[in-house]
Amino acid sequence: MISKDQFQKEIDIIIANAIREDVGDGDHSSLACIPKHALGKAKLLVKDTGVIAGVDFARQVFAYVDPEMNMDVRIADGERVNFGDIAFYVSGRSRSILLAERLVLNAMQRMSAIATKTRYFADLLEGTGTQILDTRKTTPGIRALEKWAVKIGGGENHRFALYDMIMLKDNHIDFAGGIPEAIKKTSAYLKENKKDLKIIVEARNLDEVKQILAEDGVHRILLDNFSYEDTRKAVQLIGNNCQTESSGGINEHTIAQYAACGVDYISSGALTHSVYNMDLSLKAV
């Protein structure tokens, strides 16, 4: 996984690029009618129910736009919210509040939706010993925000990108000439390049599980689109040799049954690619 410093760099890039995209040569609406030194105050109003996420991100956005703005946080990231709640107040130059408004809302609405869905899935897994994971099925350019939201919601992050973990999926295996060849070539590559990366290998059936187990150095086996019965058989075959992960169309109706099969992780792209934004507003007070 990437370090905290690397992750923060990703957040910094998102903020800088989003402000560049939105502001251009100036927020002319505010410049036209708001005096330069006018002060104001606004509240983040919740108009929905769920889990709030992005409060700390909002703090970073406001600080980037204008270090003299102040936030009074009333509800922290990860807390449940209801219609009418106020997550925070922000005060400072009115122009600065308006300049940051859209980025804060866009990010928090999406992050809160992801955190809410993740919390729902995590609650379904409570007591099973299985953890919910995200995937790389994220919105281009804002992956760090979406993976941050998964953590806030109680889930765990899979690899961040292509560079921080090895994941040999069906196409890698087919292009490499088979499971043994793919794993051996990968192990040699890591040794040659002095890289310490964990290896996950995807299995499409029980025979492929056996092929993976015959090789050394695999950290986790990904059971892709397995039935409940085959998942249970795979978990028994794998035992303590490596970690197990189920994926492939698993939803709120099937997640508990897959967890009951004994897998360590369940990954779901739906955490980030199939959500409806939480309704939030930033209103002057």
Describe the structure.
- There is one protein chain.
- The chain is α/β, with parallel strands linked by helices and 285 residues long.
- The chain is 45% helix and 19% strand.
- The protein contains 11 helices and 12 strands.
- The protein has helices at 4-23, 28-33, 55-65, 94-124, 143-152, 170-176, 179-192, 206-213, 228-238, 255-260, 270-273, and strands at 39-46, 50-51, 70-73, 80-81, 86-93, 131-133, 166-168, 199-203, 220-224, 243-247, 265-267, 280-284.
- The strands form 3 sheets. It has a 6-stranded parallel beta sheet with strand order 6-11-10-9-8-7. Strands 3-5-1-12 form a 4-stranded antiparallel beta sheet, covered by helices on one side. A two-stranded antiparallel ribbon has the order 2-4.
- The longest helix is centred in the middle third of the chain and has 31 residues, at 94-124.
- The two termini are 42 Å apart.
Report a brief summary of the structure.
It contains 11 helices and 12 strands. The chain is α/β, with parallel strands linked by helices.
In the sheet with the most strands, the strands line up as 6-11-10-9-8-7
Distance between the termini: 42 Å
CA-based gyration radius: 22 Å
Helix-strand pattern, N to C?
A: HHEEHEEEHEHEHHEHEHEHEHE
Give keywords.
Quinolinate_PRibosylTase_N_sf; 45% helix; 4-stranded antiparallel beta sheet; alpha/beta; NadC/ModD; 19% strand; 6-stranded parallel beta sheet; glycosyltransferase
